[in-house]
Amino acid sequence: MRPHPRRVSPAAAENTTRRRGKKAKDIINAARESLAKMIGGKPQDIIFTSGGTESNNLVIHSVVKHFHANQTSKGHAGGHHSPVEGAKPHFITSSVEHDSIRLPLEHLAEEQVAAVTFVPVSKVSGQAEVDDILAAVRPTTRLVTIMLANNETGVVMPVPEISQRIKALNQERVATGLPPILMHTDAAQALGKQRVDVEDLGVDFLTIVGHKFYGPRIGALYVRGLGEFTPLYPMLFGGGQERNFRPGTENTPMIAGLGKAAELVTQNCEAYEAHMRDIRDYLEERLEAEFGQKRIHLNSQFPGTQRLPNTCNFSIRGPRLQGHEVLARCRVLLASVGAACHSDHGDRPSPVLLNYGIPFDVARNALRVSVGRSTTRAEVDLIVQDLKQAVAQLENQA
User: Fold this and answer.
1) Per-residue pLDDT at 227
2) Residues belonging to the active site
3) Parallel, antiparallel, or unpaired: how do β-strands 141-145 and 219-223 relate?
4) Over the range 230-262, which residues count as b (16 or more CB within 10 Å of their CB) and which as e?
5) Which of 189, 364, 368, 394 has the most CB atoms around it within 10 Å of its CB?
């Protein structure tokens, strides 16, 4: 005979559900606290998202919505007057931003919803220069968005200096009746490789991407004084999760993983950074030793400019040595020829490298190698030898 199934009273089932719900909520809140600690912010200023693309789009979307909300509130207490009737919000960004910034801004400009200035990076420093960004400011400017570090070269942008100048400018703007300019940085590439602190950066928004610091493929957005000092408008509407700013059932396991990854960064960032810099520098030394300094072009080195410790972007000069051709013949090395999410671009040079002033024939040969927390010198020796055999194969083809 089969035993009768155990019957659970409705009250007991409801209590179990509540306990499990509270446990999930506690896990999410603990992760939020870990993320906030990693970036020197407050837990209540963190919103979980699906990743960097959503976070970046959420910032841009919110600024457009806020601009129009202020337009309709003209004449009411606290409402800002637009300098020109029917004006569009103006955005300032750099010419080397990730596509999740560049493409939505281009789309808004094409739809005549916003105006956008793409500030070129300096061919000398590799950075978006502070003076160039300030020179692009208009009365309708509402957001400056500059990545903290470039994903292809590792060049670190002068975000604290930009924020300081914008803050000073905002005092003048408010005195003349203009609304302040908000500051956003996409910190995806920098997190886990160097210390990131929102107070030092002086930003209003900061994008967090989990898989860039060994976490799950989700993300978060920091918003200074969320909903009180800095506006945020939801792109989605639903069940009210994340205080209605980002509704949708929370992905609790991945949020827990993101929190743990952030905790490890907080505890070990200096050690991670020192190790990656040592291995990256060794890689560049070995490349120059094996191929010769004249033949290796280090695309991410700009004298006097800080760069991330893990990134090595280089080209091996030669007419047959396009990056994708070299990689196709490597047996061990896994790398990319530009942004990792643009692996389908074939032999076209990276637009980012061209914007940095890297010559076309050099940019076409570019390879981007990232070292990690556990990469060893022995592994560097292995991939350099792998590159040597790949180059020899290509050069021996007649």
Assistant:
1) 83
2) 341
3) unpaired
4) bbbebeeeeeebbeebbbeebeeebbbbbbbbb
5) 189
